[in-house]
Amino acid sequence: MKENEYNDLKKWYEETADERCEEMGEFFGRRIGNYEEHMSAWAKHYKRVAELVPEGAKTLLDLGCGTGLELDRIFERLPDISVVGIDLSESMTAELLKKHGDKNVEIILDDYFSHDLGENRFDVAVSVESLHHFTQEKKVGLFAKVCRALKPGGVYIECDYIAGSEKVEKLAFSECRRRRLRDGVPEGEYVHFDTPLTLEHELDAMMRGGFERAELIEDIDGTPIIMARKRVKA
Ligand SMILES: C[S@@+](CC[C@H](N)C(=O)[O-])C[C@H]1O[C@@H](n2cnc3c(N)ncnc32)[C@H](O)[C@@H]1O
């Protein structure tokens, strides 16, 4: 199974070797037309993420909220929850606002790595299919900010693409590096190229970010849902 993932990925990199890197926001802007249809394959994941948001949660941070597919399900359960969604893409979030402009939702068009997320503000944070493009070190810094932004005892729920082995993780980062260098992408610019971490490395990044606990809740068709909890007492 894992050997197949590695071989399939290697083959796909060979077939697409000449494709140019696309800047992250521009990538999603170009695909907005059929984005939600494409993501319908993850319907079960959005439903499960929404079920895991604790009853009684009043404030929610969504990292990489996009067009709001996870929020579609979350608002069904908790229509009055107050949401801050952060995303790089204006066109994606414009779709979100078309659907949920009547809800208590604030959109921040910014990079979640550099934006100040504040302290002790949110009962829950979520991120769905957004973080599989970044290194473990960058994620440790982000998880530290998310942990700080949560109230004591608050939870972070993540559903994202994960590498099945370290061999796959290394292959993806190495191909991403090769393409970035070839295309002269400046250091720090985000490109849409999947570089998922293994589950072990993802959980480790959350723990290093300061969460008290981080665990796999469920694996749905190979995509894990992870929950991390902030300590109740400092
Ligand atoms: C595949 S979409 C997922 C959107 C939504 N969570 C969903 O599941 O439909 C990834 C989103 O993450 C956003 N994103 C990627 N990197 C980001 C960053 N560094 N800061 C803010 N948003 C980012 C993209 O603009 C895009 O809207």
Please give a structural write-up.
With 234 residues, the chain is α/β, with parallel strands linked by helices. The protein contains nine helices and seven strands; from the N terminus they run ααααβαβαββαβααββ. The chain has helices at residues 2-15, 24-30, 35-38, 43-52, 69-77, 90-100, 136-149, 166-183, 199-208, and strands at 59-63, 82-87, 105-109, 122-128, 150-159, 213-220, 223-229. A seven-stranded mixed β-sheet has the order 3-2-1-4-5-7-6, sandwiched between helices. Strand 4, helix 7 (136-149) and strand 5 form a beta-alpha-beta unit. Helix 4 packs across helix 5. The termini are far apart. 33% of the residues are buried. The structure holds S-adenosylmethionine. The site of S-adenosylmethionine has 22 residues, from helix 2, helix 5 and strand 2.
Q: What fraction of residues sit in β-strands?
A: 15-25%
Strand order of the largest sheet: 3-2-1-4-5-7-6
Bound molecules: S-adenosylmethionine
Approximate shape: globular
